[in-house]
Amino acid sequence: PPAAQPFSLQSFIDAHREAVLVIDASLKIAAANRAADAAFRRYGRRLAGRRLSEIFREIALHRAFTQATRG
Question: How many CB atoms sit inside 10 A of residue 62's CB?
Answer without folding.
Answer: 14
